Structures are given as structure tokens and as C-alpha cells.
């Protein structure tokens, strides 16, 4: 672990914040998802995805009823909120299993579960294997129950290896499956056109149409996908990069995701958010929490003194 520089100063709070951050992303995803509109579709259109393939088809009847979808969504949000608070590990287990089922139901009526959503399930599963409840959770009190620092460094590496491998596998797959045809400009044009007509959660910016209608911009299509592939493969260096090279790679991947949205209208907002966990936020987090806890202690002491010095009024006995 000495050569691994990613979160080299990680502690229980670093890991606890990662838990809160990831489960808050999933909570937001589920909360704003329009799952209830599936009730307008015929259940015969449902095609099992993921772990739902293990469920007999007789149990699919009513899977898109308003009552089932509403109750399931409320229960999933409850478990996700409990995982954010860090009540216990059972909330972590129920959250990632429930989210996997949620994705299976959501995509069962059209589309497919892709890496944009699956990597969240894998991160949630990875977090459940770590001591992420040692701090910043209602099941633990401050100061946190610290283990060997190597434990938290290894835990953060385990969690962040999920998005790292996601980038690397996509880059390798593009090279081994589609090379060299996949880098032809016409392929990129086809993806841009597909993104223009495909409905998404966010409205189109119109940049894609402008991009294709001006021939002087088309020359960039010769290297744009190749450059993104290089970035994806470079993600494997994340654990070993020093601070400034790491920041440069983080901002490059952020720009990559933003460009995908602007040109292809494909939103990877969850991936964009998870990239923030690669920053070395531990010292800043401890500083902020230290000030918060210190001020809280001062206020608690002032309240305790005021309570001790308070003179309760006594009723005088009537003569």
C-alpha cells in the first residue's frame, strides 16, 4: 500500500463521507425517477432484466401496478436514507439489493441496464464490505472508533476501483471489439445523431446540431473518440498519481462527461459526481468537522452552565 497514493491519509471519516455521498446520489436518482408512469403500460410488455430473470413469470403480474411501484419506491428510499444515516449494515444490504431490483423493473419495460447505473450497485456493494459505519453514522459516536489507517486506505481503494475499472474496461472493449472501425468519423456522427433524437432526462442543448452543420468542426471527430479512449485507459493510474497529475486527470474526465452531454445528449451525472471522491478531501473534511464539533461543544457547555445556574421560581406558601 506504500505506492498507493490515492487517499493516503484516509481515516474513518473519509470512508464515512464516501458512504453518505454515494447513497445520497442513489437516493436522489430514485426519488426523482418517474417510475410510477410504468403503471400506464401493459404488464405483458415486461421483459425481465438482471436478477429479475430468477423470478418466475407468474409473479410479474401487477409488477407495474401503482400500489406496488409506490410501496417499493418508498421502502427503497427508506433503506437508502437509513444507509445515509448509517443505522446499521442491514440498511446497506437492503439498499443495493433493492436498487438492483429497482433498475430491473425500470428497464424491464424498455432500454437496458448499462454501466452508468450498474457501477452504483457495485460501489454500494463494495461499501457494505468496509467499516464505513465507523464514523459519521448514528450507530457510532464521536470521536470515531478508529482502526488501523491501512484499513481505511484499502477500503477507499476498493470503493474507487469500481469507477476506475469501469473506465478501463470500456476503453479496452472499444479497442478489442471495434478497432479500428469504431474510430471512423462516421461512427461518431451516427452516435451524435442518435443522441439528438433519443429522449433523456435533460433537454437537448442544440450544440450537437450546430456541431454537425458546420463542416469546419467535423475534423475533430477524427480524434475525439481516440482521446476519450486514452483518458479511460489512464484512469488505471489513479491510485499511483500524485496530487496535481491526479487533479488534471479528474478534470479531464469531468470535461469528457460534460462534452458527451453537450454533443451526444447522453447524461452521466452520477459518474461526474463520483469523480469528486477522487479528490483528497480528507483533511478538509476533518477540519470542517473539527470546527463543527468544537462549536457544538462550546454551545453544549454554555447550555449546561445556563441550566446549572438557572434558579427555578418557588411558590410562597400562603399565610
Give a topology summary:
Elements: H1 12-32, H2 66-85, H3 89-107, H4 115-128, H5 149-178, H6 185-197, H7 207-213, H8 224-234, H9 243-264, H10 269-274, H11 282-309
Helix pairs in contact: 1-2, 1-4, 1-5, 2-3, 3-4, 4-5, 5-8, 8-9
What does this structure look like?
With 319 residues, the chain is an all-alpha fold. The protein has one domain (12-290). The chain has 11 helices and no strands. It has helices at residues 12-32, 66-85, 89-107, 115-128, 149-178, 185-197, 207-213, 224-234, 243-264, 269-274, 282-309. Helix 1 crosses helix 4, helix 1 (12-32) crosses helix 5 (149-178) and helix 3 (89-107) runs antiparallel to helix 4. The longest helix has 30 residues, at 149-178. The radius of gyration is 25 Å and the shape is globular.
Termini distance? 82 Å
How many domains would you count in the coordinates? 1
Strand content: under 5%
- Largest sheet, if any? none
Helical segment tally? 11
Shape: globular
Task: Please trace the helix and strand order, writing H or E for each element.
Answer: HHHHHHHHHHH
User: Fraction of residues in helices?
Assistant: 55-70%
What structural category characterises the helix and strand content?
mainly alpha
Mean pLDDT: 81
Low-confidence stretches: none
Number of strands: 0
Radius of gyration: 25 Å
Short descriptors:
globular, mainly alpha, 319 residues
Task: Please sum up the structure shown.
By secondary structure, the chain is an all-alpha fold. It has helices at residues 12-32, 66-85, 89-107, 115-128, 149-178, 185-197, 207-213, 224-234, 243-264, 269-274, 282-309.
Amino acid at each position: 500500500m506504500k505506492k498507493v497514493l490515492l487517499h493516503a491519509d484516509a481515516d474513518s471519516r473519509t470512508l464515512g463521507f464516501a458512504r453518505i455521498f454515494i447513497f445520497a446520489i442513489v437516493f436522489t436518482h430514485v426519488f426523482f425517477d418517474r417510475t410510477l408512469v410504468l403503471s400506464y403500460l401493459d404488464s405483458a410488455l415486461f421483459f425481465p432484466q438482471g436478477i429479475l430473470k430468477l423470478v418466475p413469470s407468474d409473479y410479474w403480474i401487477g409488477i407495474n401496478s401503482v400500489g406496488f411501484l409506490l410501496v417499493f419506491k418508498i421502502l427503497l428510499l427508506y433503506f437508502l436514507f437509513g444507509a445515509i444515516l448509517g443505522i446499521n449494515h442491514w440498511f446497506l444490504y437492503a439498499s443495493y439489493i433493492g436498487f438492483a431490483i429497482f433498475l430491473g423493473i425500470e428497464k424491464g419495460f424498455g432500454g437496458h441496464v448499462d454501466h452508468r447505473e450498474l457501477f452504483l450497485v457495485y460501489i454500494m456493494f463494495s461499501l457494505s464490505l468496509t467499516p464505513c459505519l465507523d464514523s459519521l453514522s448514528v450507530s457510532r459516536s464521536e470521536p470515531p472508533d478508529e482502526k488501523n489507517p491501512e484499513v481505511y486506505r484499502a477500503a477507499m481503494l476498493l470503493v474507487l476501483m469500481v469507477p476506475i475499472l469501469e473506465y478501463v474496461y470500456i476503453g479496452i472493449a472499444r479497442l478489442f471489439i471495434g478497432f479500428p472501425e469504431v474510430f471512423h468519423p462516421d461512427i461518431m456522427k451516427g452516435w451524435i445523431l442518435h443522441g439528438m433524437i433519443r429522449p433523456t432526462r435533460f433537454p437537448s442543448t442544440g450544440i450537437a446540431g450546430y456541431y454537425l452543420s458546420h463542416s469546419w468542426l467535423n475534423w475533430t471527430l477524427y480524434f475525439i473518440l481516440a482521446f476519450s479512449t486514452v483518458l479511460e485507459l489512464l484512469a488505471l493510474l489513479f491510485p499511483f498519481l500524485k496530487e496535481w497529475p491526479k487533479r488534471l486527470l479528474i478534470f479531464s474526465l469531468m470535461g469528457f462527461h460534460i462534452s458527451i452531454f453537450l454533443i451526444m445528449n447522453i447524461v452521466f451525472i452520477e459518474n461526474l459526481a463520483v469523480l469528486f471522491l477522487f479528490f483528497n478531501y480528507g483533511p478538509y473534511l476533518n477540519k470542517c468537522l473539527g470546527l463543527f464539533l468544537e462549536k457544538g461543544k462550546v454551545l453544549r457547555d454554555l447550555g449546561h452552565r445556563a441550566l446549572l445556574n438557572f434558579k427555578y421560581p418557588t411558590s410562597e406558601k400562603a399565610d
